[in-house]
Amino acid sequence: MSDFDAIDSLLASVAPEAELPERPVRRELREQAGLSKAQVARALAVSPSTVAAWESDRDPAGEVRTKYAYLLDGLAAKLAPQPEPAEPAEPAEPSPASPPTTTAQAAQDTNDTNSTSGTNDEDDDVETLTVPEPCVLCGAPAGQRVAGFPQHLDPADCATAAPQAPAAGPAPRRTRPEAPAPRTPRAAARPGDRDAGPSKPPTKRAFQPQSGPPDLIAETVRSALAAHEGDVEAATAALVRKAIPDAMALLDETRKGGRYDVIAHPWVPDILRKQTARGADSIWEARPKWTRPELPPGEHEVTALDMNGAYLSALKTHLPIGQLEHSTGFDHDRRRAGVHLITPPHWAHDAVLPNPIGQRDEPGPLWVTEPTLRLLLRLSGPKYGLCEAPEIHESYTSGATENLLEKFRAALVTARENAIAEDDDVTLEYVKAMYSKFVSTMGESNYNRELYRPDWMHLIRSQAFANLWMKALKAHEQGLSVVRAMGTDELHVIGDWRRVFAEGRGVTEVKLKDVYTAGTPLADDDPTGPGAAD
């Protein structure tokens, strides 16, 4: 092959990218077809979170873009209204009382027919009223008219009044959407009738079989064991390798019906970007790395405790929902979350408790996360009074909720507890890999490109560190001597720890990791006894 043949071959392989509809249209087509993101993802060999991103803030490329465009074109063709075959009509004799139809009237009839065929945009059926009119459903003033009927667009606005029948009058000529019928009164509503009036939420039934996301984990484990013919080690290794995409699929499953849409790839400020390829960003996570400077006099038995599921518990933290926005000033809005530039307060208790911001060599302002700031504000409050309040200089925050990942966390906790109860090491290792890798790869990682939230990663990790610090404070307040606090899960104490912490393998319990002796025995004539108070 000559050089020109190679170039011609290369040029032949370059084709224009397939055109895609606007992102909101993509989602509308999928939902109108009754397809879930998981179904589309399986057909295109991607994750459900990737499909969600294509419908919100980014576009596919390459071969998968061509496949996605083909799918959307097919859905659009399937969902397009099909013209009904016209039935042959018998010629009618003209009525002598009817005037002949003019060309203008025929054109008007054609326009009316197009209006009733559903070809107009839905927005044409919603009119904003300058003067409110009584709602056909509840009788209260409504500011919109839908398909010719005044009514509230939000059903919640009709919840305070009894349903009423629509006023008599000529039916509108538009047929999409059809004029809403009066809602069934509460007393006559049938269970499961979506058109029924406002009613109480269904009662939660006790002792019902488990369903939902935890079953997704169990089914994946069963499939892996079957694929490897019961080989536990091989199945575990295979599950751990696919823990990241499986965690993302579980997240997508648990977000169904969620109140907020997860923005997977928002803009992030430079402080959340790595300064070099192997470097770090500017966020300080306040990781504990503390050992008590001096032990109480005497020789002591020290117990090393292991906090179970540290990152799993830390998934319950205030996470920003949308894109971070910059602000300046000293006020802290508890309805928002993000990262903050603060001057930390002086810490005067390092002899018995670690500094809440960790061991930091350089003084002055630093960027901390929401959990660290909330911990400092809590410790500076009237309940504890351990330090002054931090000084906030500027922040990057967004509206936040503590329950954004709660269903995801609950599914993992349930699967973990079931695995422990059944002595199922395969599921236990799989679940551990899912939540630990989920947290560690949601930043700038090549292993998880479906979710780019370095802010979430820092906040979840910092929440784990803050949780450990609060356990150290609890031990100190209950009379134990705190000897060491390290990372997310290691706490060393002197004293009867079982009266302070519950022992076990549950997420809210602790495990005994090690017992060792530290300190120097006292002389017989020393009046200070072992275990002296701090």
Summarize the structure.
It is built from 14 helices and 14 strands.
What features would you describe in this structure?
This protein has 534 residues and is α+β, with helices and mostly antiparallel strands. It has 14 helices and 14 strands. Strands 4, 7, 8, 9, 10 and 11 form a six-stranded mixed β-sheet that branches. Strands 5-12-13-6-14 form a five-stranded antiparallel β-sheet, with helices on one face. Strands 1-2-3 form a three-stranded antiparallel β-sheet, with no helix packed on it. A hairpin with a 6-residue loop joins strand 1 (126-134) and strand 2 (141-146). Helix 2 crosses helix 5 (62-79). The longest helix is centred in the last third of the chain and has 24 residues, at 454-477. The model is unreliable at 91-124, 159-199 and 530-534 (pLDDT under 50).
Unreliable sequence segments = 91-124, 159-199, 530-534
- The overall pLDDT, averaged over residues, is 80
Number of helices: 14
What's the SSE pattern?
HHHHHHEEEHHHEEEHEEEEHEHHHEEE
End-to-end Cα distance: 84 Å
The biggest beta sheet is recorded as:
6 strands, mixed
List keywords for this structure.
single chain; 534 residues; alpha+beta; 5-stranded antiparallel β-sheet; disordered C terminus
Walk me through the topology.
Layout (H helix, E strand, L loop, with lengths): L2 H11 L9 H10 L4 H8 L3 H7 L7 H18 L23 H14 L9 E9 L6 E6 L2 E3 L61 H15 L4 H10 L1 H12 L28 E2 L4 E3 L7 E9 L2 H5 L4 E2 L4 E4 L7 E8 L22 E4 H11 L10 E11 L4 H16 L3 H16 L13 H24 L3 E6 L3 E5 L15 E10 L15
Parallel strand pairs: 4-10
Antiparallel strand pairs: 1-2, 2-3, 5-12, 6-13, 6-14, 7-11, 8-11, 9-10, 9-11, 12-13
